[in-house]
Automatic annotation (TrEMBL), chain A:
It is a multi-pass membrane protein. Belongs to the binding-protein-dependent transport system permease family. Keywords: Cell membrane, Membrane, Transmembrane, Transmembrane helix, Transport. Pfam families: BPD_transp_1. This is Carbohydrate ABC transporter membrane protein 1, CUT1 family. The chain crosses the membrane at residues 26-47, 86-111, 123-144, 171-196, 217-236, 277-299. CDD domains: TM_PBP2 (cd06261). Its main location: membrane.
From TrEMBL, chain B:
InterPro entries: BP-dep_ABC_trans_perm, MetI-like, MetI-like_sf. GO terms for cellular component: plasma membrane. Keywords: Cell membrane, Membrane, Transmembrane, Transmembrane helix, Transport. This is Carbohydrate ABC transporter membrane protein 2, CUT1 family. The chain crosses the membrane at residues 7-27, 70-91, 103-122, 134-157, 178-200, 236-257. It comes from Methylobacillus flagellatus (strain ATCC 51484 / DSM 6875 / VKM B-1610 / KT). It holds the Pfam family BPD_transp_1. One of its GO terms (biological process) is transmembrane transport. It is a multi-pass membrane protein. The keyword Membrane applies. It comes from the Bacteria. The lineage of its organism: Bacteria, Pseudomonadati, Pseudomonadota, Betaproteobacteria, Nitrosomonadales. CDD domains: TM_PBP2. Belongs to the binding-protein-dependent transport system permease family. It is found in: Cell membrane.
Length: 307, 272
């Protein structure tokens, strides 16, 4: 969606080198609100988090912050809770990102068809988007309830024994994945639908004239032209999956036995509930580095596509 | 590739996937408490009642939560649109050094996990005296939506022909007037799309709302609805009624504007 915008902006920039001084100053004033907001909400907090991560700061102790160098980071590396949260967060990404892309692609292909059932499909596509993450988590926690959940009701009807989904680690992972895919495939579908609509109809007509099968058309026309939109969906989805908080928190509060604790939940618990600010900040920096490392791979691909 | 029955099955699965949770809480909101304690569970309400809706409003200040969510979402959307309009216009139309860098920085911002900024945000908001006020949420929400909204608006601004703008300026408009009188109205679908994206994002947010605005008077819907559960009780029919009340406004908004939301997002992508 934003890919073309990106490359066009660059091209226009190269084209309009002639200009005047008043334009630069107007540009300054127009950019000012955005820059001020970013400075207050992002730049300063990021600097503060990095700074705090080198201190031992506990809001419970009377003495002030003490500089401890890298010891928060060393502690984090040795902390089994951190590694468990990293493993769980990455596992969540590995399952839910492709899952949401696949379901989102299905929804987008259906919503893109010219047929009379298009509006219910579009509504089905938008509805999960309109239900806040935390609510989705609550609703799915209930669906997977051992006694009163819909899922176990269906299992019973099919003759299986009910499963305590949210009390057994592996099953709660599955339940959280399903809830996450359900909620996030909606936004993916929106992005992919935008991508689908950019594919010229004439290409399909030409391919059909050549006698291509539906699968061939999908494979050789739709899929390649959908790649930019797929990349954007992939980036957004991966970043937000790494930051997963709402759905696991609402479904299990990180349980059973902290098994479903994501990095975001761990940071929230450490820094806000236990007020261990220094250590929480170090964890925050690590999460940010992880997000950057993963998304820089994507961004490089995106740039290569754009230029 | 798909044979007809297979396509219909796929459609049915995806439709059920989209609608089922919403339909389920709607059905539950009319059930009586006793019905929820039955096993096997019932799917259709046996003795429909509206009591849960009465309880939803009387057990917790649901109207207050709704009002808070609405105010926060609307105000942060307006702030985002204001900042994003300026930024998008500067990036698309004006001479600017380091344009590429600015754009990259904008995308990179989307990568800061809210959880990582929680502690300093808490301190900033406390320093500004904004904890438990709308301001504590409006500012971060506006920033969260800023990158996407700027890119959407930029791609719409690109589609407005420069000639129209130049003509307006020959007729005596300043550049700023050209922006507000010509470019913005012509980009109305883009403004609308960006607005909806920002609004939904703010309406959805939970982590910051939980950390920054947890006081009784300033809770937003996602935080407030958690309060219906007791320590050991989970009054699902009442929670369902509250969820229905919470979801309906946005659902109506989206049903009314579904064509515009989708066409806004899609035209944003076509030309760019």
């Amino acid at each position: 969606m934003n890919l073309r915008a990106f490359s066009n902006l660059r091209r226009n920039y190269l084209r309009n080198s002639a200009s005047d001084v008043s334009e630069s100053s107007l540009a300054f004033w127009l950019l000012l609100p955005a820059v001020l907001l970013l400075a207050l909400i992002v730049v300063y907090p990021v600097a503060k988090v990095i700074h705090d991560s080198f201190y031992s700061i506990s809001l419970f102790s009377e003495s002030g912050p003490a500089f401890v160098g890298f010891s928060n980071y060393v502690d984090a590396m040795r902390d089994p809770d951190v590694w468990r949260a990293v493993r769980f967060t990455i596992a969540l990404c590995v399952v839910t990102v492709p899952g949401a892309l696949l379901v989102g692609l299905g929804l987008a292909l259906l919503a893109n068809r010219e047929w009379k059932w298009r509006w219910p499909v579009r509504l089905a596509l938008l509805l999960p988007w309109a239900i806040p993450l935390a609510f989705s988590g609550m609703i799915f926690a209930w669906f997977f309830n051992t006694e009163y959940g819909v899922v176990n009701d269906l299992l019973r009807r099919a003759g299986f024994a009910p499963i305590s989904f949210l009390l057994i680690p592996q099953w709660s992972f599955l339940a959280i994945c399903i809830a996450t895919i359900w909620k996030t495939s909606s936004f993916v579908a929106l992005i992919l639908l935008a991508g689908l609509q950019t594919i010229p109809r004439s290409l399909y007509e030409a391919a059909a004239l050549e006698g291509a099968s539906r699968w061939q058309i999908f494979r050789h026309v739709t899929l390649p032209l959908l790649m930019p939109a797929m990349m954007i969906a992939l980036i957004f989805r991966t970043i937000s999956a790494l930051q997963s908080f709402d759905i696991p928190y609402a479904m299990t509060q990180g349980g059973p036995a902290r098994y479903t604790e994501t990095l975001s939940i761990l940071i929230n618990t450490t820094a806000i509930e236990y007020m261990d600010v220094g250590y929480g900040s170090a964890l925050a920096v690590l999460l940010f580095l992880l997000s950057m490392a993963i998304s820089s791979v994507y961004l490089r691909k995106l740039y290569k596509g754009a230029l | 590739m798909l044979k007809l029955p297979l396509r219909w099955i796929a459609a049915a699965v995806l439709l059920i996937n989209g609608f089922f949770p919403a339909v389920w809480i709607l059905l539950t909101s009319f059930k009586q408490d006793a019905e929820l304690a039955q096993t096997p569970i019932t799917w259709w309400p046996q003795h429909p009642t509206l009591d849960n809706y009465v309880h939803a409003f009387s057990d917790q200040p649901l109207l207050l939560f709704l009002g808070n969510s609405f105010a926060v979402a609307l105000l942060s959307t307006l702030l985002t649109l204001f900042a994003a309009t300026g930024a998008a216009y500067a990036l698309t139309r004006l001479r600017l050094r380091r344009r590429g860098l600015t754009l990259t920085a904008l995308v990179a911002i989307a990568m800061f996990p809210p959880a990582t900024l929680l502690v300093p945000l808490f301190e900033i908001m406390r320093g500004l005296g904004l904890i438990n006020t709308y301001g504590a949420l409006i500012l971060p929400y506006a920033v969260q939506s800023l990158p996407v909204c700027t890119l959407v608006l930029a791609s719409f601004f690109q589609q407005v022909p420069k000639d129209i703008e130049n003509a307006a300026m020959l007729d005596g408009c300043t550049r700023l007037q050209a922006l507000y009188r010509i470019v913005l109205p012509l980009s109305a679908p883009g403004v609308f799309t960006a607005g909806i994206l920002a609004f939904v994002n703010a309406w959805d947010e939970f982590l910051l709302a939980l950390a920054l605005n947890a006081a009784p008077g300033s809770r937003t819907l996602p935080v407030g609805i958690l309060l219906y559960q007791g320590e050991f009780t989970f009054p699902w029919p009442v929670i369902s009624a509250a969820l229905v009340v919470a979801i309906v406004p946005l659902a109506i908004l989206i049903i009314l504007f579904q064509e515009r939301v989708i066409s806004g997002l899609t035209t944003g992508g076509i030309k760019g």
